[in-house]
């Protein structure tokens, strides 16, 4: 497979922002998605602060280093990024070179599950994708303190998804496509849990063996093929308004 270029990553990341908007996972301008710039371990792309997700274009993404410095020339407004977003994303990109894309959301259902002591319950097939594969990070206030990066990384561990208690969701992937699939299913699992709990009926829990078996099934060798098919199909939801780079 051909190595991605920065232009291609910008195109895919802008599409991911629009898909997050399409699936109503936005919170005005206050959440963020980032992607590692190919060919370097030290630069990543993140949204320019103030641009709504549904209007995100490749040129609206700011390239910064792990110290938060803009890499490309531009005025202060065009290089402005969310400070808390920098803390969260720089932590993951600095520590997890296997991850190319990180998504953070503040959805109502994601926050609701993040407020529950037991977190994500293993009660749906969507949730079992994350069985024993989900980190939890205790709330420490708005993530403006760079010292929190160490505990964020420790909480994530070797997982690709995490619940930020009292705050929201985080999902990542080795590609933009995988990050999209992970945040989509994590969000859907939270939605289903909140609805199931609201019914007030006793919940049915699969056995631990079934939970682990199901989680392992999501990791079968054909998983990357599925991920790419999902991503390709999801991008068609954005046509014909999404500008693509040929």
TrEMBL record:
SMART domains: Aldolase_II. GO terms for molecular function: actin filament binding. Residues 11-194 form the Class II aldolase/adducin N-terminal domain. GO terms for cellular component: cytoskeleton. Transmembrane segments: none annotated. Belongs to the aldolase class II family. NCBIfam families: PRK07044.1 (NF005451). This is Class II aldolase. It comes from Achromobacter spanius.
């Amino acid at each position: 497979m051909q190595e991605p270029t920065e232009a291609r990553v910008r195109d895919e990341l802008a599409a991911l922002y629009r898909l997050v908007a399409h699936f109503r996972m936005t919170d005005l301008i206050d959440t963020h998605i980032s992607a590692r710039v190919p060919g370097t371990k030290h630069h990543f792309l993140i949204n320019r602060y103030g641009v709504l997700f549904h209007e995100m274009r490749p040129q609206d993404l700011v390239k910064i280093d792990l110290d938060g410095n803009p890499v490309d020339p531009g005025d202060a407004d065009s290089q402005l990024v969310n400070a808390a977003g920098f803390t969260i994303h720089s932590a993951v990109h600095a520590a997890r070179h296997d991850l190319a894309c990180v998504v953070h959301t503040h959805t109502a259902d994601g926050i609701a599950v993040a407020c529950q002591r037991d977190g994500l319950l293993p009660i749906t097939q969507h949730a079992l994708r994350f069985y024993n594969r989900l980190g939890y990070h205790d709330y420490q206030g708005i993530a403006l303190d760079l010292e929190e990066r160490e505990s964020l990384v420790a909480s994530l561990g070797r997982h690709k998804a995490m619940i930020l208690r009292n705050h929201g969701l985080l999902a990542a992937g080795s590609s933009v496509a995988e990050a999209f699939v992970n945040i989509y299913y994590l969000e859907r699992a939270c939605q289903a849990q909140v609805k199931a709990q609201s019914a007030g009926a006793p919940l049915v829990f699969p056995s631990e063996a079934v939970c682990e078996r199901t989680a392992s099934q999501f990791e079968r060798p054909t998983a990357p093929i599925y991920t790419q098919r999902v991503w390709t199909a999801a991008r068609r939801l954005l046509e014909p308004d999404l500008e693509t780079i040929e």
